């Protein structure tokens, strides 16, 4: 009996994944553990390993296809076995009747040449974001960027309920991004000439042409590198952050003597006490998790007409990966020990770097910490991750002097840069948070005792 | 099927033979000298003049067509020119004895008939009558163009002569001042006050209509006879045969009541010019050899058929005199084969490739006008000088009128730039006239004594009582609702008649008319032959003559048999007459199921496509009665669709019950049958009930609330309620039992897309029947829209339903594939 391989569900919010590359072709021998194909959500790439051995009998999707999760992707079995019953494109198979509604996918003709023609007219490869007029209207009325919505309509169309969800839950990262997502010309700068100011295809083409003309004037030598999904998402969210909030940054530094010596102690007794390799960053995360609840406006989401104040601290930790910036969340950090935090952060960072992180970990943070200290940065302006109201940047340690008992003494000073949303919180309360954080970090052993 | 006619096997199985009487061929043998006792000199000369008027009129048009000039007048005439040069004697001879109460219906080649009939009517009308007619017609617009242009301003007949020439000419030149404001044109010009009824560009098209006019005259005891002027080629058309049979059907002789007995007062007058366009009828395209033979096969009277020499006006007058008498004695119908010849082509583009020059020359040598002129001189009625004088006067007159009719100031066209709605406003008469005439209705018993009326008193007039469905036998059904509206009207409008197949005694195949037989005499309610073209076409003639009529097609699938009559006649004569004619006609069309491919089709879309028809399709008893009442009070042709699935249906929505007294539901207003929030479902006809089932599942299983709108009418249609609904829900599914391709639902969907585009959350989705033949009843669920089709379509195209498992393929690929295959 042949075995179908389904597109796994990576996280509850994921409804479909893009099949990025086939590692096997029809007719190949497959051993247990062989990688069959790779696929990605908007945030991570995964490899699907075979759980059975046999011959790679059939594949039902092409590279680049957006495949609904739990749908049959390919079949492993022995030569000559029937694969028809597993084909998700076929109507009325037993498979289809057993699986949920998503399995009912467009029926593609069995005849090869027709298949090609039909595929051209299907929606999968379209270069546009599909949105119903009603959903677009709702977006315009509420000044929402519909590109943040998760489409649940037919053929990946954003429909009214998707905008309603976006409206209620804010523009969090969504699994909406698709190939070509970032190619959508920015809506600004396009003049609608259609009825009632509607933007017509011609308008879009004009805008596109204008762009081309500008470019051809200088004719620089360059290489076009297609943006990755993550780059597009980052670009989108960074721009959204700066465009839609009133953010500014406060800088300070603290005497790191205490935490450096604490780290030294931990290092020396690590094996004996079976502690993690606790880093300075872990300690800062710990201190932030213990300080934030006294400054509730910074452990919050700003939702235009209301503030959502969180009872626990869910810390976002910015991680630099080859694929770009990723921000996994340490949920309920305020309830976790330093050692727990340290262990969790390491695990998440590793998952981010390998691209295997569960997308559910990439959302839900209430405050973010980002660290450029290891790269010798002395001060910077972190960019908010809306609707969060604050983000703390951690800088490098520099030697500074201070006067102690009439003498100048050197001490290790570590910089902190707090960006906050002035719409949510004023300067003085934000500064008070920084001041308390500074005190806590300079007296780290005391907060450890709390 | 009347029980009074006993089919006795002992009689019908007896040996015997059918014998035929001789059919006269060109038996008229009088010389002009012989006719002097019947005609005065003036009469003889008037016949001559009238023939010349036609000849000159046709020559004028021919001249414009071929040279762009006529007697120094330049004019471009791009329209049709089917001229009757050569046929003048036939037209003038026919018209000579007819007055305004005698109706003629014509063909595409009828200029001559219009002029001859008009001149004859003018001769017989008094000056006062003529002035009333001319002043009253379009408020004197036509009259104004010719008023004061006569040599003698007190000569009303002269004025009327100019009026007739001008009205016809301006009509041919598409002028707003023409008899039909230019909307009829050359092939359709007519003027009812002179008894000139529509000429028809469809070959034989006048036969059923003229039959209906004759029916009107008989049923309503009107003066006059009816003449259907059709060509020899038209005898090849089914509707012509159907009409001949209809007008001679046995019941007229054997079953109709005293005072109404006898065939219809109609002459099927074949202007036999030997050609149907280029096809030579005798010897090539027809079997009859001599056309008049045809009458022998119709009835024992052989239709009093006769061939007459149409090249001699006096022979034709003689024939009409004899035939008119037959009709007045209720011995109709009559078939007249009037031999003639057209000297010009079918139209100016005709190169006469189908006949020889010798043949044309031979007929020219016997030209009807020239030979009559010779006879006038030989008999000493007039000398050459007098006859030349008449000819010059005619030429002068035609030139004068032509100058007026081609002048754009005197004779402008409709200004559609300034008044873009002129034609739109003429498409329907939109009047409410409860009775077409005010007199006592011919009925057999008082309405209260009608057995069906009494039975209905005991019915429960609502379909649900105390939450339970009322049983079929107890409830007032949709068929009762239609009956009630109709019987009420039978006791109100004396002109109302109804007919169709198996209507009397049987009560119609679906028992809608049960009980009508008891109330109505034959002449108001009878069984038609199985002749859908004659049924629909005669209804058109009955209505435009001034009566109200309900015709019935037993199955929608038979609509094709009445195609021309519904699409070209019923739909067009109100607007082509520029509002002169009204069409108070309801065509009941029953939409079947269960009986396979030729008895189960919903062809509403065919009728809605044709401008000029109102189209309704009620699905509830309350709506059926209200819409039928509106249709019967109105003056427009209404195609009234009824679903055989619903005849038993009780009233499930109007829970106060269907009122006993008459009430109207305006045609064109859809009705919200169930309110909802998330999706609109617009239904036509019987799919209403399946949509309700789908709505129930949507609500119970998926938490989606559906609003159901019953279209009730297709044409006209007020979108406002649908727009409001879609603005609210953002989504719409449309469904009906019509095959999806070309369905009117697509028209609805397109308009809704335009009207609510910015409010739509998904494109409007149409769920119709498959583009197949209708399979057997046992397989119908695969053909007609079902509730699960609606759910699947919603899931696939509008709003994915959580956890829904589809059973049918509504994907885009499937749609492309089906269309590629044409299924």
Keyword list:
heterodimer; A: 450 residues; alpha+beta; OB fold (Dihydrolipoamide Acetyltransferase, E2P); Chloramphenicol Acetyltransferase; 3 domains; six-stranded mixed β-sheet; four-stranded antiparallel β-sheet; 11 helices; 18 strands; 22% strand; globular; B: 823 residues; alpha/beta; Rossmann fold; seven-stranded mixed β-sheet; 29 helices
Radius of gyration of chain A: 26 Å
Largest interface: A-B, 29 and 26 residues
Helix segment tally of chain A? 11
End-to-end CA span of chain B: 42 Å
- CATH secondary-structure class of the largest domain in chain A: Alpha Beta
Relative helix content of chain B: 25-40%
Fraction of helical residues of chain A? 25-40%
**Poorly predicted ranges of chain B:** none
Query: Which CATH first-tier class of the largest domain in chain B would you pick?
Result: Alpha Beta
Report on the structure:
The complex is a heterodimer of chains A (450) and B (823). With 450 residues, chain A is an alpha+beta fold. Chain A has three domains: 3-121, Beta Barrel (OB fold (Dihydrolipoamide Acetyltransferase, E2P)), CATH 2.40.50; 133-232, no CATH class; 246-449, Chloramphenicol acetyltransferase-like domain (Chloramphenicol Acetyltransferase, 2-Layer Sandwich), CATH 3.30.559.10. Helix content of chain A is 30%, strand content 22%. Chain A has helices at 94-98, 112-121, 133-141, 160-169, 201-218, 229-244, 257-273, 280-291, 338-354, 427-442, 444-449; strands at residues 3-6, 16-22, 29-30, 35-40, 45-49, 54-59, 66-68, 72-77, 247-255, 300-302, 307-309, 315-317, 319-321, 324-326, 329-330, 367-371, 390-404, 407-421. In chain A, helix 8 crosses helix 9 and helix 8 (280-291) packs across helix 10. Chain A starts with a strand and ends with a helix. By secondary structure, chain B is of the alpha/beta class. Chain B has three domains: 32-407, Rossmann fold (3-Layer(aba) Sandwich); 447-643, Rossmann fold (3-Layer(aba) Sandwich); 671-821, 3-Layer(aba) Sandwich (Rossmann fold). Chain B has 29 helices and 24 strands. In chain B, strands 14-13-15-16-18-17-22 form a seven-stranded mixed β-sheet, with helices on both faces. A six-stranded parallel β-sheet of chain B has the order 4-3-5-6-10-9, with helices on both faces. Chain A binds chain B through residues 91, 96-97, 100-101, 104-109, 114, 118, 121-123, 132-135, 137, 152-155, 157, 159-161, and chain B through 730, 757-762, 795-806, 809, 811-814, 816-817.
């Amino acid at each position: 009996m042949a075995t179908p391989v389904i597109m796994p569900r990576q996280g509850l919010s994921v409804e479909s994944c893009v099949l990025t590359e086939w590692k096997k072709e029809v007719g190949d021998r497959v051993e247990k553990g062989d990688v069959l194909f790779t696929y990605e959500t908007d945030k991570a790439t995964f490899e699907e390993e075979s759980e059975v051995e046999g011959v790679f009998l059939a594949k039902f999707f092409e590279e680049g296809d957006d495949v609904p999760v739990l749908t049959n992707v390919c079949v492993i079995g022995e030569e000559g076995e029937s694969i028809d019953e597993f084909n998700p494109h076929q109507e009325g198979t037993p498979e289809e009747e057993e699986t949920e509604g998503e399995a009912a996918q467009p029926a593609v003709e069995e005849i090869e040449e027709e298949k090609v023609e039909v595929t051209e007219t299907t929606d999968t490869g379209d270069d546009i974001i599909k949105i119903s007029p009603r959903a677009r209207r709702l977006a315009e009325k509420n000044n929402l960027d519909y590109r943040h919505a998760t489409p649940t309509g037919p053929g990946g169309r954003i429909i009214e309920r998707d905008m309603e969800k976006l409206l209620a839950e804010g523009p969090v990262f969504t699994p909406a991004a698709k190939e070509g997502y970032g190619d959508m010309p920015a809506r600004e700068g396009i003049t609608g000439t259609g009825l009632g100011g509607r933007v017509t295809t011609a308008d879009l083409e004009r805008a596109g042409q204008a762009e081309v003309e500008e470019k051809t004037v200088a004719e620089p030598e360059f290489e076009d590198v297609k943006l990755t999904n993550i780059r597009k998402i980052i670009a989108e969210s960074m721009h959204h952050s700066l465009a839609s909030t009133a953010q500014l940054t406060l800088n300070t530094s603290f005497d790191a003597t205490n935490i450096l010596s604490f780290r030294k102690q931990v290092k020396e007794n690590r094996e004996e006490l079976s502690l993690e390799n606790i880093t300075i960053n872990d300690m800062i995360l710990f201190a932030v998790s213990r300080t934030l609840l006294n400054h509730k406006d910074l452990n919050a989401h700003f939702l235009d007409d209301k503030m959502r104040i969180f009872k626990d601290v869910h810390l976002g930790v910015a991680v630099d990966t080859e694929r770009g910036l990723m921000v996994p969340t340490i949920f309920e950090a305020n309830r976790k020990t330093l050692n727990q935090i340290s262990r969790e952060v390491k695990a998440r960072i590793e998952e981010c770097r390998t691209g295997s992180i569960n997308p559910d970990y990439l959302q839900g943070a209430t405050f973010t910490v980002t660290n450029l200290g290891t790269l010798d940065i002395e001060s910077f302006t972190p960019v908010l991750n809306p609707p969060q109201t604050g983000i703390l940047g951690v800088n490098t340690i520099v030697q500074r002097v201070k006067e102690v008992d009439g003498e100048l003494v050197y001490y290790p000073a570590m910089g902190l840069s707090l960006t906050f949303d002035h719409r949510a919180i004023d300067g003085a309360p934000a500064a008070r948070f920084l001041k308390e954080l500074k005190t806590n970090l300079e007296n780290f052993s005391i907060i450890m005792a709390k | 099927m009347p029980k009074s006619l006993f089919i006795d096997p002992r009689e019908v199985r007896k040996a015997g033979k059918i014998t035929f009487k001789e059919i006269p061929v060109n038996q008229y043998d009088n010389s002009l000298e012989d006719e002097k006792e019947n005609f005065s000199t003036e009469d003889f000369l008037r016949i001559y003049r009238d023939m010349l008027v036609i000849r000159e009129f046709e020559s004028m048009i021919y001249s414009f067509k071929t040279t762009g000039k006529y007697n120094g007048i330049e004019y471009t005439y791009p329209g049709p020119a089917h001229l009757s040069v050569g046929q003048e004697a036939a037209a003038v001879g026919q018209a000579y004895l007819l007055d305004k109460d005698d109706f003629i219906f014509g063909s595409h080649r009828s200029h001559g008939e219009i002029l001859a009939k008009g001149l004859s009517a003018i001769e017989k009308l008094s000056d006062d009558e003529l002035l009333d007619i001319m002043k009253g017609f379009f408020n004197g617009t036509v009259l104004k163009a010719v008023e004061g242009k006569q040599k003698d301003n007190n000569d009303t007949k002269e004025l009327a002569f100019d009026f007739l020439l001008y009205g016809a000419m301006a009509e041919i030149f598409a002028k707003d001042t023409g008899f039909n404001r230019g909307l009829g044109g050359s092939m359709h010009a007519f003027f009812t006050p002179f008894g000139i009824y529509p000429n028809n560009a469809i070959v034989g098209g006048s036969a059923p209509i003229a039959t209906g006019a004759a029916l009107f005259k008989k049923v309503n005891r009107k003066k006059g006879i009816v003449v259907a002027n059709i060509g020899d080629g038209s005898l090849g058309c089914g509707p012509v045969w159907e009409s001949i049979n209809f007008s001679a059907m046995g019941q007229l002789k054997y079953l109709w009541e005293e005072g109404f007995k006898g065939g219809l007062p109609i002459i099927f007058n074949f202007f036999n010019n030997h050609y149907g366009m280029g096809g030579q009828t005798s010897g090539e395209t027809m079997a009859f050899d001599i056309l008049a033979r045809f009458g022998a096969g119709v009835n024992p009277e052989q239709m009093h058929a006769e061939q007459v020499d149409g090249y001699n006006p006096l022979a034709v007058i003689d024939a009409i005199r004899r035939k008119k008498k037959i009709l007045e004695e209720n011995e109709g119908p009559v078939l007249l084969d009037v031999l003639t010849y057209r000297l010009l082509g079918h139209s100016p583009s005709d190169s006469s490739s189908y006949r020889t020059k010798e043949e044309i020359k031979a007929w020219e040598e016997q030209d009807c006008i020239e030979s009559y002129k010779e006879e006038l001189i030989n008999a000493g009625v007039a000398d050459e000088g007098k006859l030349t004088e008449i000819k010059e006067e005619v030429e002068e007159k035609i030139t004068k009128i032509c100058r007026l009719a081609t002048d754009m100031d005197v004779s402008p066209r409709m200004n559609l730039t300034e008044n873009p709605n002129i034609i739109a406003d003429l498409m329907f008469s939109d009047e409410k006239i409860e009775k077409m005439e005010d007199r006592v209705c011919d009925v057999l018993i008082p309405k209260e004594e009608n057995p069906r009326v009494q039975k209905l008193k005991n019915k429960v007039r609502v379909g649900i009582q105390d939450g339970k469905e009322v049983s079929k036998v107890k409830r007032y059904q949709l068929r009762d609702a239609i009956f009630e509206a109709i019987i009420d009207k039978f006791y109100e409008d004396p002109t109302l008649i109804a007919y169709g197949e198996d209507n009397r005694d049987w009560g119609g195949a679906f028992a809608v008319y049960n009980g009508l037989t008891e109330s109505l005499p034959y002449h108001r309610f009878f069984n038609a032959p199985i002749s859908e073209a004659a049924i629909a076409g005669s209804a058109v003639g009955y209505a435009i003559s001034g009566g109200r009529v309900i015709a019935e097609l037993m199955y929608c699938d038979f609509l094709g048999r009445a195609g021309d009559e519904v699409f070209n006649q019923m739909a067009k004569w109100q607007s082509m007459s520029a509002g002169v004619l009204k069409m108070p006609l309801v065509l009941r069309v029953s939409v079947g199921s269960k009986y396979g491919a030729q008895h189960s089709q919903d062809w509403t879309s065919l009728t809605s496509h044709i401008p000029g028809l109102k189209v309704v399709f009620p699905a509830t008893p309350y709506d059926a009665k209200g819409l039928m009442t509106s249709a019967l009070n109105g003056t427009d042709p209404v195609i009234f669709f009824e679903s055989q699935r619903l005849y038993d249906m009780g009233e499930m929505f109007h829970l106060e019950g269907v009122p006993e007294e008459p009430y109207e539901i305006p045609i064109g207003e859809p009705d919200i049958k169930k309110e909802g929030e998330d999706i609109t479902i617009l239904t036509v006809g019987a799919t209403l009930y399946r949509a309700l089932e789908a709505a129930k599942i949507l609500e119970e299983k998926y938490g989606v609330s559906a609003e159901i709108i019953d279209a009730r009418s297709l044409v006209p249609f007020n979108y406002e309620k649908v727009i409001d609904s879609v603005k609210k829900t953002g989504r719409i599914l449309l469904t009906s039992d019509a095959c999806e391709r070309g369905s009117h639902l697509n028209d609805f969907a397109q308009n809704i897309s335009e009207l609510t585009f910015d409010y739509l959350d998904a494109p409007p989705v149409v769920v119709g029947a498959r583009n197949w033949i209708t399979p057997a009843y046992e397989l119908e669920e695969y053909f007609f829209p079902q509730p699960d089709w609606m759910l699947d379509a919603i899931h696939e195209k509008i709003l994915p339903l959580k956890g829904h498992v589809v059973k049918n393929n509504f994907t885009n690929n499937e749609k492309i594939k089906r269309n590629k295959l044409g299924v």
